[in-house]
Hints:
It is built from seven helices and 20 strands. The strands form five sheets. A five-stranded antiparallel sheet has the order 3-6-7-8-15, with helices on one face. The protein is an alpha+beta fold. The protein is globular and about 60 Å long. Helix content is 24%, strand content 24%. It folds into two domains: 4-138, no CATH class; 149-307, 3-Layer(aba) Sandwich (Rossmann fold), CATH 3.40.50.1110. The chain starts with a strand and ends in a 24-residue tail after the last helix.
Amino acid sequence: xxxxxxxxxxxxxxxxxxxxxxxxRGVGAPGGTGRTTAAACPKATxxxxxxxxxxxxxxxxxxxxxxCPEESPPMLVRGLGTSHERRFLGGTYAxxxxxxxxxxxxxxxxxxxxxxxxxxxxxxxxxxxxxxxERWLPLPSxxxxxxxxxxxxxDSITYGAEPYLAAALPGWQVGFDAVIGRSSEGGVAxxxxxxxxxxxxxxxxxxxxxFYPETFRIDASQILDSLQKVPFVVWQTVHSPLGxxxxxxxxxxxxxxxxxxxxxxxxxxxxxxxxxxxxxxxPAAGHDDEMAKLQxxxxxxxxxxxxxxxxxxxxxxxxxxxxxxxxxxxx
Length: 331
């Protein structure tokens, strides 16, 4: 991953922008009186989010966003409608970085959002909002088949959630390798095996049974390195009262930031306190579906964004994150 620079470098980058067109009365247009506003830039649809640069509006074919209700994952699109179209998801799919990578160049800006790229890495986009810098998740151009595939590697949390995860992902081919008491070391071999025939999505739920953050970092790095050719990898954070957990979760965030095909599912903040059992780790009786409530909307939202024929159309809201998942068998 490219080295990062702080947000102070943003000022210096605002002079670099290619592929722009003049907008009426914007900078660079005859009679212009000031900077082009995003509202003045032409829109492809009512839901389009357009961008501006120092000399005018960024072409929609170069960069356009999807302006949808908050429950829909925000999306940026480059090369809209072309053979090299590339989509990027923000929101829960974005990963926070300590700063912009060195060599970043301004692509465009709109109210509350400035977008950067590294010219030599066209598969990445970085979004600055206030003092926060995010790497948005690049989407593949397609999935492997009409039946999306997901593989879960985990410990007892995943083991108990298996039937609920399968039920929450109808139409998906779902596989599991979950072992009670497994540490991250136990996930290295399954990840390498899955890499030989990569699924569309790999979900990693490990770290709960790791006691040494330094060892966890080594094992987790191996797992993520093995899964570099998986289109989408989700790592689920750890929820536990044990003292090493903050450092484990910090390590997860750092490693995910260094692997562009990854995102975080934040189990630590998602799981309701009253759904956790007396040990402070495992779901209480009757709450084994909590992991499915977290993960299913993440995977379904990703798949919907990849397969949507019109990325500027707002998708229907995901309702599964607020409903229990029923199954006909028990874990």
